[in-house]
C-alpha cells in the first residue's frame, strides 16, 4: 500500500488538512506536496466546507523541503540536474501550488508548532490566518546556502521590508511572539492549546455567510495584488533561480544537494530557547 503523507477530514463545515510525516519533521517530498495540493482542491470544491485548517502532526510544522525527496519527479524518474529541470519542478510545486492555495475562495488557518523553515513558509504563508504555538519559530536561512530566499517570496509582505532583510541576511529564527508583533502571526497560544484554539476560530468563522467570506478574502487579496504582490512573487521566483544557476556553475551541483550538509545547523534550537 502506498504511504500517504496527508490526513483529511471534514466536520461541522471545517476541512482539516494534516501533514503526517512527523518522523521527518514534515519535510516536503514531491509526493507530499502533490497530496497536499489534492487536499486543498478537495476542500475548495466541497460545498459543505466553509473554512480550511492546515496543521501538522508531530513536534514540528515543517522543516522545509526534503533534501533527498525533491530532486526528481514523483513517479520515480531520475533527477533533472539542469537549471531547466530545477525550474520546472520548483515553478509547479513551490510557486504554483502556494499561489493556488492562497487564492482558494474560502478562509484558511495554519496552526504552526515547532519549526517552520524555508519551504515550511510556503505552506503557512498562503493561509489567511496563522495561529502559532508558543514554541513556534519561523526562518528562511537559505542565504547561508548561496541563494536569496525561498521560492514563494512572501517575506516583504508578511513582515515588512526591513525585518524581511534582517531575517534573510542573518538566517536567524523568529519566535512566535516576534512574528505576532510584526503581523505575520495572528495569535500565539500555548502549545497544548494550539489545535483547540485553531478549531474554535475556524468554527466561529464558519458561522458567517460563505459568499461574504469569499468576497472579504477576495477584497484583501486583490488589494495586495494591486500593490504588486502577485507580480513581485513571480519576478522574485526568477531571481531565486539564479541561485541554482550559480551553484551549478560553481560546483556542478544543484543547491538542493548542497543543502544536505546544512541539516544539523537548521535543526538547532533558536538562541532564545523557544
TrEMBL record:
Classification via Pfam families: ECH_1
SUPFAM superfamilies associated with the record: ClpP/crotonase
Alphabetized UniProt keyword annotations: Isomerase
Presence of keyword Phosphoprotein: no
Example of a GO biological process term: fatty acid beta-oxidation
InterPro entries documented for this protein: ClpP/crotonase-like_dom_sf, Enoyl-CoA_hydra/iso
MF-aspect GO terms: isomerase activity
Entries under Gene3D superfamilies matching the protein: 2-enoyl-CoA Hydratase, Chain A, domain 1 (3.90.226.10)
Matches recorded under PANTHER family: ENOYL-COA HYDRATASE ECHA13-RELATED (PTHR11941:SF124), ENOYL-COA HYDRATASE-RELATED (PTHR11941)
Designated name of the protein: Enoyl-CoA hydratase/isomerase
Source organism of the structure: Pseudofrankia inefficax (strain DSM 45817 / CECT 9037 / DDB 130130 / EuI1c)
